[in-house]
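Look over this one:
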Amino acid sequence: MTTQNNRIFLSPPHMSGKEISFVMEAFDSNYIAPLGPQVDAFEKEFSDYTGIPYCVALSSGTAAMHLAVRYLGIGPGDEVFASTLTFIGSVSPILFEGATPVFIDADRTSWNMNPDLLEKELEACNRKGRLPKAVIPTDLYGQCCDYERILGVCEKYGVPVVMDAAEAMGAFYLTQSDKGSLLCDPGRFGRENSVHAGCGAKAAVFSFNGNKIMTTSGGGMLASHDKALIDKARFWSQQAREPFAHYEHTEIGYNYRMSNIVAAIGRGQLQILDERVKKRREIFDHYRTGLKDVPGIEFMPEPEWSGANRWLTVILITPEKFEADREQVRLALATENIEARPVWKPMHLQPVFDISGKGAKTQRPGGKKRYSARMAGGGVAEDLFDRGLCLPSGTAMTHSDMDRVIAIVLKCRAKKKLTA
């Protein structure tokens, strides 16, 4: 029974009960360490679901991104374009390999990487004879970027795309051109020309962190249409061990492989993913109905090409109209034991990056290193951060839970009006 004091988390894990049978299979087989039959089965079932033919299960989405970046030969002196409105795990692998990130602003249509701004920056780099080694767009909050625009302009300049689809399991993109243009079989989601998030990119990265719509407690997947990429990533993820009876290494690798137990959980979660997406979209609709026509409240838009999984319901609060700002609403929810969070803080605003271009010192007080970066635009992402609030969106939420959140949001406005 829900009470007014019960904690409502932002996006907690939600087990279906199907997971335990796969976990017991893993225990019964005694495959507890990384690798094993559950990992093999999870990779195959993941590939079948997404339509991306080759994949390798890893310890995290960040590990998956790192292997993709390394495979592309990115290193010191190179630039990599990335969404500024994203989580740090999308960007940190660029730094692992010694390259420089160039952050691209979001657009208003999808809150994802702005294709027009991307094209402008690629044109400028091409004129200078210094194109980036890769472009990494993020499918923000489970909403696909405009794949065909982004992939098309990158193809024009021969720049590979690594899609950060970490938040986008179960989301799809509606292609606007010929069937099969994004390499996956269209129609997977009952819509003509629909393909799963990540399709068509050189590689796609997925996360199964504890707060994701599909979780294994931790873990990630690197998926690609390029078998050689996945084979190499698989090799590196196992400490780059050569096929000898003894341990022999001609390259340095990583301990990035997924546990057999974790993969077992993933198999159970994958079976009910469609149900979870349906529920998240219902939660979004419930919030939207409850806050309909409230001055100063807007919801994350869904453009015509997007079939978002609505991992999180995100609103914008304009204080001049709502009469309370994002932080006042967040704190009011926190006071009532409800977790809500601001939209991702843009990468170009993070203290770890130096985008001044003035040769700032590489060390901050306390010896903390700063990394050089460039920025294209920034105003849209900054505005979304200033006004954006992620509301609780866990699939175990009841209507009563959502109504409780809605009532507190509305009370913030009413309280402000009473004290005005």
The CA atoms of residues 203 and 297 lie 36 Å apart. The domain at 19-272 is CATH 3.40.640.10 (Aspartate Aminotransferase; domain 2). The first strand starts at residue 54 and ends at 58.
